[in-house]
Fold this protein.
Amino acid sequence: MTGPEHVRELIDQCWQAPRGSGQVALAEEAIAQADAVGDDELRFQARMAATEAYYRAGSPDRCFAAFSWCLARYDERPDRYADSASLLLWHFKYQVHALPRFPEVPLERAYTVLADMQRRYQSGGHSLQAVHKLRWLVAAHLGDLDTAGYHYERWQAAARDENSDCDGCDPTAMAQHLGRLGRDEDAIALTDPVLGERLSCAEQPQEILTALLLPYLRTGREEEARRAHQRAYRMLRTQPAKLASIAEHVRFLALGGDVTRGLQVVERHLPWLEDAPSPAAEMEFAAASALLLRLLAALGHGELAVRGARRTVAVLADELAARATGLAARFDARNGTGAQSARIAALLQAEPVVAAAPPPAGWRVPPQRAAAEAAPDPLPDVPADADLDALLDLVEESLRRDLEPRVEALWLRIRPLSERDPLTALQHGRLADLAGMRLHSEAAEETERAWAEALEWYVQAGDLVRQHRIRGRLGLHRCRQGQVEEGLAEVRATTDYLLAHADDRDRAGALRRLAVALLHAQEPAEALTVLDRAAGIAEPDPGARVRLQVMLLRAQALGADGRVRDAADAAQELVDQATADGERELIGLGEFFLGQGLTMLEDSAGAVRAYDRALTHTLPEPLEREVRERRAVLLAGTPRAAEVVDDLFAMVERLAEEAEEDDDTDHIRFHLAVALFNAGRTEEAAEEAEEAVADADEVGNQNLADQGRHLLAAVYQRLGDPDRAVSYLDQLAGNLDGFDNAAARARVLEQAGELLFDLDRDDLAAVRLAAAAAAYAVARLPLDEIRALRRQTVAAMFADDTEQTRIALATVDAAARAVPPGLAAEPEAGYELAWVALDGARALAGIGEPEAALSRLAGVAQRFEELESFGEALLAELTQGEVLLAVGRAEAAEPVLRAVVNHLPRDSATLPRAAYVLAHALLLTGQGDEARRLAGEYGFELD
């Protein structure tokens, strides 16, 4: 499709697209295509769509030009663009909202736009409600409280119309106004009714909840504030356009004392600061983050490294404070006031409303500066006048022993010597070799260039051993960069040469290098053989770190070879040895691999303990993240779920950014929903689970979708929406067809039946339970089939369906008789068969056959007692007493019921029922005083 039709399609797609960069790209393509076609109507419509897209995507500055172009064309030909007149009036609001956010835009422009907007609204007969709201906004930005108050009152007094903001957005701004005036109770009272409604605006309810964070906090409603933060932040955290709103959450966490979570939020969104949607948003986030970091530093964590910033907490706090202060000064220079500078200064020095809670023990313990300053001299054995060759010999030995601090200290001594006299080819090579060794973990291309240069110098120097050593390093480097086949061939060749011509030190190093390359090539069995060969070489002691790294390699190779138990044992040996050697980094690595192994061995508790221990050590950032993520998945379904919700949120975001086509995101979103459910954050669990199910359905991952449906059934049951819970269970049962899924389908149908039974929807419960029994029969699970059938019998009885009750009872009795003798002798079967007798008696009594019920109850209580099921035994006796009373045998019922009441625990939910029946037996046997005493004790009336 080309020409105007294609442009119209692009415009339609733009209006329908989700807000964000994709919508902006469609708008800009539509503008370009419309301009190429030269159709003024299409050019106008493309820019109208672009105005919306720019504003919604957090680029309000870019919508100025598009809006101005459209407004000029409309004024030239209002008849031609009449259909867009109302949308143009709405777009006026975007311009005024955006203008105060950019200090480079003259203030007069905002007033000019406001005047034009007011004129057009008045001439069109529209309410000025939206105009007064925007005049309030500009005055509040300027710090002109009197003018802001005047327009606030005019805004409230004016009638709402089609140009007014939605029922959630207007109260949001009103809450902000009242909060600034310290009228927190009024703000809460104003907005609480709004939150009880269903808000369909894309900005709500997250914005109104954000506006209430500080009013809730300042009025002592800490739990409401926490829930508002959790719900709103979850909806904002993926939207860079909402950086200013996220800043409010950082401010709330700082003033609410939760600096631990606050730092996580700051680190997550700090990269957005460089591409902030406006200078105002940049200022707000920088100021709120500086406040939080200052409070964290005051707790003694100023030396902690901020992830992604390469700054400590204290240093970044100062930098962000200066950034916010500078931006405030720019706004004040434009405004001719000092309002923004005063406001930012107050924010930066704000004191917590709730005392800051110190981070938990072991939380990101940073290297202490004092310890670094007191560290021993790494070069006590190096003469001050050592020449270049001597220093290069020492650095090679330090590299072999993985003594990084010593390597760096030697490098500082080597650099000035390398720049003095002309160097030999060998010295050039050794220096390039050293440069590559210091780079290789951070800069792949620079490392390869350095080692290629070293190889050239070694060739020129004629040093064959160093040539093969550096070629082996290059080969392993290429394996690490994904060039496995080429890299492994190079490592093999150089290993063969070094084994034949080098000393024991180089021979052992070559074999270790080959083992690593083989792991990259997914050849773990051969890697283990190579490590055994290396262990047989009598090399000089390489030092504790290298020995530990070999142990780590062996654990990795064992795991990759499928020898999981051996791998876990090897990881434990590594932890023990690293602990003895005091090598904290390798302790953490060992615990990580131990956790992996124990997870594969299905020892989740042991794996969590290993990961917990790993996090008490300083780990490289990517490894710490992986430890946290693996631990989070394991803890999602446990009572510790609340600890890992943030880690799972971060994991969902990372996966969504890294792998758009990968359903790993949906799996982790499901685990997040499970964690939220177990953490008591049920509404959020519902939202995440709904999204996981929708995405899993879209990509055809039925297993994951069905797991989500099962979770949603529990979620909606907790939320008091049983109809939706049953709906999900029915969907799930419908998906679980076929013999292989019969048992799972049966469990879901039984769960639905029990839920319906609890809701007194007994006829529907009986239908589900009958279907569950049929599915259990297909799965050849006779005891489960019997359980479902007896429950169906009781449900049919409560549904007053006498015929179905008799049919179900006959069916369950037949199934009970069909239980094989060997199985029937098992305690589990005995328990289920005793229940068949008890539930059958209850059903018979319920359909008016008490004598038959009594005959079924004979010996049932004793059968339960023999199984040590004493609570069930008392229930059987209670049922017997009730039936005896129903057939007019009060004298026989009274001692049975008395025994039940005397033996039931005082906190038993069944006790009031038993007391009620006993009281009636007492009345019928002439013991009225005792009956009335029971009625008074248990709070019921005798009839």
